[in-house]
């Protein structure tokens, strides 16, 4: 019979393994191929060494090692999906993520915000699947966005960089899985692929104008600041582009003028894990209603909105999630500026299907 203490130590090893694998994925995306190949081996070796100590007499030392391993795993996962600063270039921010896999902080959902010379740029995305298998794709997309958001003057060029990074990641992974295929693998996957990612890109400009590009992702909700709280409205300006990976991007990617955020107004971005979540009776989570309830009160902070929606989702599902869920809330806290003269339109209003 396994003693209770030993059982708890076994559980510690089991739940440390996802974190170790996350560490391997993060490093793999940033190291040379030769060094990257060593990371999974080292992670597996460390896990086996921990398991081997379970039968020894150094229980306390093992417990300390497991705690350090968990800390490393958490640090690696937070390096992939970094905590957002509370404020960036006059925009108040908060993000939250719930994983469907126990012991994993990061799944198939992704988000990030960057302050750039071109405005505050935001990505919200959802890689097919969840948990550990999706982490490599998440790392590839986030790494590409963090560079392209600063380097590219046009938001459409940021999206093209993401598309190239996505296909490059899939080709590299396919070559690792099928070395004999070599260069015979196609440069782009076609519509029958099982690999795709939805991506929403936003750019908040100096006076609150929000530009958008959407590849198959849910549109955000707008929070209009009013004296006694906020008024929510779902934005659905047009049909988005297909998700990345299903079809190549068109030669002309039209930029959409999504909305304008006045001081005190906000946006809430989310993944479809909220709308698809069900309770024990099969009832879908009422995301729009939960968001409206979360926005009640006087000028609710983005962090409060995120926390309230997450709590409502966990209550609805009883804590049992079938998919990852990510939520990002932002609010324009910049000073009110004088009305600007209208400029000549530089963007198209929408992509027509």
From TrEMBL:
Membrane-spanning residues: 12-28, 34-54
Key words, A-Z: Hydrolase, Membrane, Transmembrane, Transmembrane helix
Domain spans labelled PPM-type phosphatase: 88-332
GO MF annotations in UniProt: phosphatase activity
Source taxon at top rank: Bacteria
The protein's name in its UniProt record: Integral membrane protein
Taxonomic classification: Bacteria, Bacillati, Actinomycetota, Actinomycetes, Kitasatosporales
């Amino acid at each position: 019979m396994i003693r209770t203490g030993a059982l708890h130590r076994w559980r510690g090893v089991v739940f440390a393994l996802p974190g170790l694998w996350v560490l391997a994925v993060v490093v793999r995306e940033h190291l040379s191929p030769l060094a990257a190949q060593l990371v999974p081996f080292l992670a597996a070796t460390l896990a086996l060494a921990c398991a081997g100590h379970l039968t020894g007499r150094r229980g306390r030392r093992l417990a300390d090692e497991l705690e350090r391993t968990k800390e490393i795993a958490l640090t690696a996962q937070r390096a992939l999906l970094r905590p957002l600063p509370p404020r960036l270039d006059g925009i108040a921010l908060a993000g939250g993520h719930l994983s469907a896999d126990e012991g994993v902080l990061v799944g198939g959902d992704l988000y990030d915000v960057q302050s750039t010379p071109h405005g505050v740029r935001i990505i919200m995305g959802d890689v097919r699947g969840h948990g550990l298998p999706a982490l490599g794709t998440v790392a590839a997309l986030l790494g590409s966005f963090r560079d392209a958001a600063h380097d590219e003057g046009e938001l459409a060029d940021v999206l093209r960089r993401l598309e190239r990074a996505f296909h490059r990641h899939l080709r590299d992974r396919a070559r690792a899985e099928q070395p004999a295929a070599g260069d015979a693998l196609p440069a782009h996957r076609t519509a029958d692929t099982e690999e795709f990612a939805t991506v929403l890109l936003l750019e908040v400009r100096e006076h609150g104008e929000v530009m958008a590009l959407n590849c198959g992702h849910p549109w955000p909700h707008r929070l209009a600041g009013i004296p006694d709280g906020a008024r929510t409205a779902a934005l659905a300006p047009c049909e988005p582009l297909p998700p990345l990976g299903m079809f190549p991007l068109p030669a002309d990617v039209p930029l959409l003028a999504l909305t304008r955020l006045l001081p005190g107004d906000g946006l809430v971005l989310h993944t479809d894990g909220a709308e698809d979540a069900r309770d024990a009776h099969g009832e879908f989570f009422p995301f729009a209603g939960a968001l409206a309830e979360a926005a009640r009160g006087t000028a609710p902070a983005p962090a409060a909105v995120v926390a309230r929606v997450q709590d409502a989702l966990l209550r609805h599902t009883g804590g049992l999630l079938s998919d990852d869920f990510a939520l990002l809330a932002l609010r324009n806290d910049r000073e009110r500026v004088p009305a600007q003269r209208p400029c000549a339109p530089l963007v198209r209003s929408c992509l027509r299907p």
